[in-house]
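S., here's the first fold you wanted:
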Amino acid sequence: MAFLFRKVWESVSNRSISGRESSERNRQLQSSPSFSSSLLGAFDQIPADISVQILKILGPKEATKMSVVSRYWKSLVSDNKLWIFFFQNSDDLFEAVFFAETSLRSGYPLRTFSAQLSQLSLISIYGQRLQVPGSVIIDGGSGYCKFGWSKYDSPSGRSATFLEFGNIESPMYSRLRQFFATIYGRMQVKASSQPVVVSLPILHYDDTESAKASRRQLKEAIYTTLFDMNVPAVCAINQATLALYAARRTSGIVVNVGFQSTSVVPILHGKVMRKVGVEVVGLGALKLTGFLRELMQQDNIKFESLYTVRTLKENLCYVAYDYDAELRKDTRASFEAMGEGWFTLSKERFQTGEILFQPRIAGVRAMGLHQAVALCIDHCHAAELTGDDAWFKTVVLAGGSACLPGLAGRLEKELHGLLDPSLANGITVIPPPHGADTAWFGAKLISNLSTFPGPWCLRKKHFRQKSRHNRLW
């Protein structure tokens, strides 16, 4: 500390104390009714901006301690600009934290708090976030599951999804029990130690009574299984909604390129608008990989496993902005697959992703991705759920295969060409904000909220009461 103050004092002695910004700040503080002497002797001469630099060097923990020294220091420490600096230099991006704390902290139904910084106490939010216990995040996915601790930068492991655990004929409860036990075993944590956030796969798309019952049964099975394993609190939330949160939005259309199909999901204020309609295209990651395999076989490119084909798809394939123009280009590129040597692909690189827009190329009778999204936009517009159309004009991509370079730009171009200009105006397509782990990061935003687990999680006692009430009715 002595060394720190010595270095700061050297800075003060080498500069003019009459700097406009510092002098003005000091005059404001001293004329304030709440101002009192800082009791730091010679250090009372330090300009306010230098004092702030001291606090930045000390860090958030020590800066908080300085707030009790005097009202002068408390005024400096309470300034939101200082805590923006601390947030920006922490593991969490300030923009994501600000979005989460203003849009998600109340739980569902969402209540957006004032976006004015002056009305938020960032020092309080920073302290509350440090006290949050965190959670285990299990993103079921449709191809594979991502799991990890919410305080980590990214998922710590991957496994098969719960839909693939156990015999397909075995009861859902036993499959879920085996699945969750495997995840907790790999993470080497006790189920009873932390809350859990589970992403729900996008299944049973329609708004029919049977689809509602299927979704409710799956959700109740997940809650029952986890509470029987003594998990203290559970948050189960739709994957598409989590992907939207990861893009720092609460309303929009999520295009999730899943393992076997692609879903187009309209979401308003965090709620899936099933009455508007969830569009489904029978093309997913599995079909893309399979089509690339067919193209490679046609060109006599030999490979040992489907895993190799998937690796090439992830590292060499892209979506052409103009398919016909791309056919006239030399698009050869090579990649070394571990254990199998080098592979060179040419037109296969963009023909693979083209089936999302022209399914007939792969022999699939289905509408193209752009047509499905345009249809969803038309339905949202016709539903007139809000006073304007802004809520559905942000399209967020999610899923591993949605990470193909060029997909967002091509989809946006096709939508502008397909829709009426008045409806197409303002439409933007956002690539997966965190790649294949986008939904996991959406869950991380919730898990690290200053109010977590309170408004987002269901506890065992409340779940039992809710279940009894449903049975009575």
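And the second, which I think is the more interesting of the pair:
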Amino acid sequence: MAQFTFSSLLPHILSPATDPVQLTSLAPNTLLRNVMQCSDAELAAAGDVVEVLLAPAQQAVALVVATARLKTGRAVRAESLRRIAGAPAVAAPSFAPLRAAFAHGVARAAEHARRPLLAVAPLRALLLAGAPNVLTPAHHVFLRHAIAAKAYAAAAAVVARPLDAVDAKAAAAADFLLYAYYAGIVLAALKRFADAVLFFRMALAAPSRGGASAIQVEAWRKGVLCFVLSGQPGGAKAFEKGSVARSTHFSVHKAIDACGKKAYVDFVDACLSGQRPRALLELQANAELFMKSGNLGLAKQCASSNHLIQQQILKLTQTYITLSVSDIAKTVQDSVFQIKGASPQQQQQYLEEIAPLVSPVAIKSHILYLIGSGKVHASINESIREGNGMVSFHDEPESYADLNALMQLDSMLKTAMSVYYRVSEMDKAISLSKEYLTKVGNDEKGVGGGIGRGGSSRMDSFGTIGGGGSGAGVMFDDDGGDDDVMMMDGGGADEEDQY
């Protein structure tokens, strides 16, 4: 039973003479603590109080009131939610439970309105204002809504912040798994495929209790296709190599094998061969599988002529120093578009069809794109008319001797040292924890089970192989375009003033 009613507390909250500590401290008998003891129904019935709680010190109270209104289905202006979420007053670690409740309230309201974009700005502000390196349940909730709204650029700022700690009071294994999976999807949508591979690998190597999560299977599927698009050498085995192979539980590998791994491996090998007819044949044979798993768009990008041509040009940089545009076009035509077993008439018809793709103008545009993206260091001398110009491939031109490079290097070293310090502290804390010592003692005695034996986890609610669904609901669009790379059920992308 609350000692005070909210209506009796409100004049003191709004008074300029009130000590800010009364509004920002969670200690007993403070105004903020008394507000938290009021019922959600009472706080929600107080009208648009959130709109008048504008002072920085009042934002913690506004957070409590806004959460209550969201829980009871009342309206809160989107601008007010962004203001509250980004307020420094609610960024302290002690407010983590309140921020989590606020995040879930915003998410429920956006889902009820079927407008996922409504949740993006408040949740983004909430995460950017919080501890920069701590994983919370709000992280994957935010990314899920950003993907649904196709607000990938808005999510990039959150994904870019490295996480090396977990909010142990609120987060679980499933929160890490979903965060890594959704982060990989965001980066894949932004065509940052190499970065996406890192997150899909993290999801793949996440701890598994009671069986493999279906999300880990989806992470492998999307991850191996992004691995191809990143241009890294090797196929599916290279994607799984190293620490990923050692950390991934055997049940995950078994589940992947049972869910069409061979079809993905055959398709990846066909794409890595550089032969588009072979890649298209595998794509056509497995189109239904790619469609069911929501990866047809990624698969089409892997087999696209643009990707295969650019990969062939990159291979040439490892062999040649100079090469004419005509020679590059001829090499691309012979390696990417070769067909076997066709009659001379069929070959002639095929060559006429692909002529625009391997013309000097088309090849030059690919080279210029690779130069602009930093994948190739080269120059084109068009004054040499023979061969439609001469391409010279260069080494990395950056000498890293200027002030900007040194400042960037210094910043990276400081970041690495900070991460090393936090990881060292984490290692000490784990080695001294009662749970870890008990686990080590039981393992030495042969008591109990390791990972994947028994136990339960919030990860189970997101589906295990042989159980429920994948819990993801995300699919890559089948046109392989730049704008609509992925689709997710639910909502449009127009933001309104209030929930």
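Why I say that: Residues 448-473, 478-499 have pLDDT under 50 and may be disordered. The chain is about 60% helix and 5% strand.

Talk tomorrow,
H.
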